Amino acid sequence: SQTLGEIFNLFQQHLDGEQDLREDIRLAVRDLEQSARGILTALQAIHQPDGISKIHELCKKSRSAFTNVQNQYAVLKSKVPENQYYRFHDHWRFVTQRLTFLAGLTVYLESEALIQREEVAAMLGVCVDQTEGFHIDLDDYLTGLLMMADELSRFAVNSVTSGDYSWPVKIARFVTEMNLGFRLLNLKNDSLRKKFDALKYDLKKVEEVVYDLSIRGLRPSSENQPPSEGHM
User: Which fold has domain 137-218?
Assistant: First the structure.
């Protein structure tokens, strides 16, 4: 039989192995965080006075950077033991949410459409279905969408400053539809619910921009009235 010292030596070996594994995961996540900062820095240029004219170029740059992100997720996936995704999920939760936001912002600027979970998974190089392994968690996807709404409300304000009055109207319609969609969900995650609570302030900010354009006679006549929040 083992002595008490031998038993605790085995415990220590297990703890050391666990620590080494977590450090490997942290290093892989650090690379993803660096890529996310680079993409964010590139897309922040939309807020500059000449940013709207460069949207196509900025989205192309973002798409290119996501190729590297896919490679980095492949490295991360190789570090995570099979069937232990949620044991280590906290390590990459935030960076995945941020990259979802950046992927969503890229797609919206390209097509004015909501990015689907499957499209996020493809851009990150991960799965959608939990049974297939390393995947995009639904809460992380939804959180990324809410982060995107916050960025779009800022873009609506800065678009007016840049002399473009069409983006705020389009963003108001889009964020209104997002708000109505999120209202259909029974959110159990406290963090996600708090972020959803902030969505109404993002919507209010954009609606105020559109209202200001309307009373100043600057709202593009070709744009239809965005749906009211009260219309279901």
Answer: Methane Monooxygenase Hydroxylase; Chain G, domain 1 (1.20.58)
Distance CA 168, CA 152 (A): 9
In one-letter notation, the amino acid at residue 208 is E
Q: Annotated binding residues for Mg(2+), as ranges?
A: 151
Give the three-class secondary structure for 135. Answer: strand
Q: Is the dihedral of CA 14, 15, 20, 25 positive or negative?
A: positive
Q: Could you name the CATH architecture of 1-136?
A: Up-down Bundle (1.20)
Give 73's contacts (C-beta < 8 A, 6+ positions apart). 32, 124, 125, 126, 134
Binding-site annotation: residue ranges? 151
CB environment 33-59: b (16+ within 10 A), e (fewer): eebbebbbebbeebbeeebbeebeebb
188-224 tens-digit pLDDT? 878 899 999 999 999 999 999 999 999 988 888 755 4
Extents of the domains making up the chain: 1-136, 137-218
pTM: 0.89
Q: CA-to-CA distance for 173 and 216, rounded, in angstroms?
A: 20
Q: Which residues contact 115 (CB under 8 A, 6 or more apart)?
A: 100, 103, 104, 107, 108, 145
